[in-house]
Amino acid sequence: MRLSLLDRSRTRSGHAEGDALAHTVERAINAERLGYRRFWVAEHHGVAGIASGAPAVLLAAVGAHTTTIRLGSGGVMLPNHQPLIVAEQFLMLDALHPGRIDLGVGRSLGFTAPVRQALRRSGTEPDTFAADIAELRSYLDRTAPVTAHPVPEQGVPLFVLATGRGISVAAELGLPVVLGGPVLDQPELGELLAAYRRDFRPHAGSRPYIVVSLDVLVADTDAEARELALPEVWAMVQSRRTGVFAALEPVHVIRDQLRDGQDTERVEQGLDTVVAGSAETVRRRLEELVERTGADELLVTGSAYDRAALATSDEQVAALLR
Known about the structure:
about 325 residues, alpha/beta, 8-stranded parallel barrel, two-stranded parallel ribbon
């Protein structure tokens, strides 16, 4: 089982927002040392809790501090960009770090209406996701009327971040698919994956390839792991009330605020969606997930306020799959 890591450059209370980017670079260095196959970064706009709005820029910094681990985006939100510009950015990255660059693309728009407006997206535009990916690929493989530069030596692999319709787009275009979030809990997930494999149209010798992305955190005990996961879950719970996805807070600060019974219930429900526990617990849950999905690769996305404990978790997750 291939194991990779996605870091969303989460901001932390008490730290400058720019520190989150330095923390991402540090995590990538550690991931390379631990033997993770890929290290991916994200694209979010106007979100207080996430410092990464420009994956290509951040990947250039990560690449300058690593030597072997593959680097990519999880992902570039293609509706926000012209395909040619995305191709040029990632071809530049590939020229700087040959043979190490992946390009994951998604279709999500901004987190809030003002962000969508700032991105010049109303949400009523026609769905051109499949066509945009096909155009993007034509620049990467030099079949487009316009040649994107620098011309690649080996090419940049494309991945589709998908829920629902996106899975069928990946099959239609013969591309690997990355699945995460609520789709993993849908009763029809097995049917969606079966359809992906059945309808897959190979492109240049490609084959079906499924990456499952999920929050994973390991600690000495299940209780300690759930505490480690609490800041991320709390930020999500609060965002549903305030509309702001905020910086991670320390556990003791969150506990002081957890007096509302409804919030407590929502936090517990959120913690149940995270694969958080001892090494034995996490191994069992990951084995069940892989058996259920037939995944070829796991993309771990855990976040925590405690960076030392997060680094230890990354080490223990890597050890599970050695």
